[in-house]
Amino acid sequence: MTDGRNFYITTAISYPNAEPHIGHAYEAIAADTIARFERCKGKNVYFLTGTDEHGLKMKQTAAKNGISPRALAEKNTARFKEMAVALNLSHDDFIRTSEPRHYRSAQEMWQRMTDNGDIYTAKYAGWYSIRDEAFFSEKETIVDDSGVRYGPGNTVVEWQEEDTYFFRLSAYE
């Protein structure tokens, strides 16, 4: 029985560019522990987990393996689902960003933010690490003797410039 209070918890939705590892399990177990604890306190808990099947990391890994990003996602998402069963997770839903229901909800949210003036375009530039999925400043990088630039995690970074969309967070400060 719930006391009427809602509690929402989610894991990061993992990239299925490889099979799940101990870090994925750790996060899932931590989220599951919190979900179970909040249920014990009488809250109406909704626990979400899943996979993000888009992005450069997926595209590059698939190409290296000679398969399509979709095939890579199908193969490894099955492993993430198996992990959830093996860990006896109490999640309410497993979402995949390739599912039509995800498209619909993402489009609806995007439209609401656009209509509210919360989305704008601008140029973004910096040193980008594909593996880390992060931009780094010049001073966070080093250049080795061969001229290759590395980020803090010893991953190769490349200069990226792109027109992109931003969320107007300053409107909510």
Number of domains: 2
- Regions with pLDDT < 50 over 5+ consecutive residues? none
Taken from the alpha-carbon principal axes, the silhouette is: globular
Kindly report the CATH topology of the largest domain.
Answer: Rossmann fold
**What's the average pLDDT?**
96
Which structural class fits the helix and strand makeup? alpha/beta
- What order do the SSEs take from the amino end to the carboxyl end, as H and E? EHEHHEHEEEEE
Biggest pleated sheet: 3 strands, parallel
Number of continuous helical runs = 4
Give a quick set of tags describing it.
three-stranded antiparallel sheet; 8 strands; 26% strand; 173 residues; single chain; globular; 36% helix; alpha/beta
Topology:
Elements lengths: L5 E5 L11 H19 L3 E8 L4 H10 L3 H18 L6 E4 L3 H16 L3 E11 L4 E3 L5 E2 L5 E2 L7 E10 L6
Parallel strand pairs: 1-2, 2-3
Antiparallel strand pairs: 4-5, 4-8, 6-7
Helix pairs in contact: 2-3
Note down, in words, how this protein is organized.
By secondary structure, this protein is of the alpha/beta class. It has two domains: 6-98, 3-Layer(aba) Sandwich (Rossmann fold), CATH 3.40.50; 119-172, no CATH class. The protein has helices spanning 22-40, 56-65, 69-86, 100-115, and strands at 6-10, 44-51, 93-96, 119-129, 134-136, 142-143, 149-150, 158-167. The strands form three sheets. It has a three-stranded parallel beta sheet with strand order 1-2-3, covered by helices on one side. Strands 5-4-8 form a three-stranded antiparallel beta sheet, covered by helices on one side. β1, α1 (22-40) and β2 (44-51) form a beta-alpha-beta unit. α2 packs across α3. The protein is globular and about 65 Å long. It starts with 5 loop residues before the first strand and ends in a 6-residue tail after the last strand. The model has no long low-confidence stretch (mean pLDDT 96).
